[in-house]
Amino acid sequence: MEYSNAYIESFIQPRSDLLVEMESFADANHIPIMQLPAIEVLNQMLRIQKPSNILEIGTAIGYSAIRMALTLPDCNIVTIERDVERVALAKDFISRSEVANRITVIEGDALEVDVDKNTTFDAVFIDAAKGQYMRFFEKFSALVPSGGVLYIDNMYMHGLSDLKLEEVPRRKRTMIRNLKNFSEWIMNHDEYDSTFFPVGDGLLICFKR
């Protein structure tokens, strides 16, 4: 059964002027941010989990970091972004929010950034280069203790993940191949209970046993 967008959006609470501004800015400048239905599900899962700290891979303009921090008033968030212009935008938007003191933005490639191996995160949110999800997961899941959760967005990749590889545009085949390989790998991983939520562009939630 399919539901209309109007019906789905009737469950979404109004956002602050800053968040609406960020949504409009992202749309006008073709900057991908998490779709509203998906971030509502993510935030509800976070309310249930109640993490005290979150690592985000892929800051973009800081939208999801702010949304998560607003949802969890006692949570601190570290977020990593490699695009210099987006880092500047994120820092500006975050500085204008009421949660700026709980969000730390790190500029750099997440695969190259050194993270203290003695640091742990209750949750990791991955929303960066889709073709690198396996590498992101392998690097940062080590920082998540038993009982922690990894949340991964864009698993559906606008429908491309549902196509046969030869049906995918050639320029995106490597990315989709990597994404499909990651999907199969994590769903068969004996250390995680993983569930795919068909919301937004596809949200994967992986509970670490």
UniProtKB/TrEMBL annotation:
EC number: 2.1.1.-
SUPFAM superfamilies: S-adenosyl-L-methionine-dependent methyltransferases
Entry binding sites for Mg(2+): 127, 153-154
Key words of the record: Magnesium, Metal-binding, Methyltransferase, S-adenosyl-L-methionine, Transferase, tRNA processing
GO BP, sorted A to Z: tRNA methylation
Known catalytic reactions: 5-hydroxyuridine(34) in tRNA + S-adenosyl-L-methionine = 5-methoxyuridine(34) in tRNA + S-adenosyl-L-homocysteine + H(+)
Function: Catalyzes the methylation of 5-hydroxyuridine (ho5U) to form 5-methoxyuridine (mo5U) at position 34 in tRNAs.
Quaternary structure annotation from Swiss-Prot or TrEMBL: Homodimer.
The name this protein goes by in its record: tRNA 5-hydroxyuridine methyltransferase
Species of the source: Ureibacillus acetophenoni
